[in-house]
């Protein structure tokens, strides 16, 4: 009787439910990533479905994982999203939002997006106000993209996504949007060499970074939702277009605040 009560209290505390991981090759759930043979020897667990090592990245250096992320590797995305700690992703997300807001505020995107928040007034307060409006613009755009991705996935992909991965789909999707945005660090050269770049060259640079972001988000969406790449591409492009339309309408209101 005492053991049954102890088991019941463990269930309430969530202690009896082990951490859920996934195989980075096929996406199947696995209970553990490695087995401890001795105090100094670890053996990577093999996936029962594909018979490959469940997660080879647990032995790799961070730099190698980062290179595979840049190369849009699905196994690298699965490792980051499901088999590692994502607590620091929100810090990266904040940095990226500030970076995009700064680019928008300094008019690096003005000729490409036809959106301008920088004030010509000499008052420093008005100039700083333009940065905060730019920050609101980028933040709202990120939230809209996330919401439309979630909505269109539920509409166009009726399978119960994320139910066997150990992480709720909304949280995995949020982490995925932040992870896909890492490619926006390529906007930094625009800030550095903006004065020495022609308008067509800057437009090409921005277009390539946006295209890379969309492709990266398509790969991540396919990993998280289990969709094919084609369906994920349709959902991502649809969400991106609708987000751009609504954000254009919202920018008129933000301009009125200037």
Automatic annotation (TrEMBL):
One of its GO terms (cellular component) is Golgi apparatus. GO terms for biological process: intracellular sterol transport; regulation of plasma membrane sterol distribution; sphingolipid metabolic process; sterol metabolic process. It comes from the Eukaryota. Keywords: Endoplasmic reticulum, Lipid metabolism, Lipid transport, Membrane, Transmembrane, Transmembrane helix, Transport. InterPro entries: Arv1. It is found in: Endoplasmic reticulum membrane. The chain crosses the membrane at residues 89-109, 130-152, 172-193, 202-221, 233-254. It is a multi-pass membrane protein. The keyword Transmembrane helix applies. The keyword Transmembrane helix applies. Belongs to the ARV1 family. Mediator of sterol homeostasis involved in sterol uptake, trafficking and distribution into membranes. This is Protein ARV. It comes from Culex pipiens. The lineage of its organism: Eukaryota, Metazoa, Ecdysozoa, Arthropoda, Hexapoda.
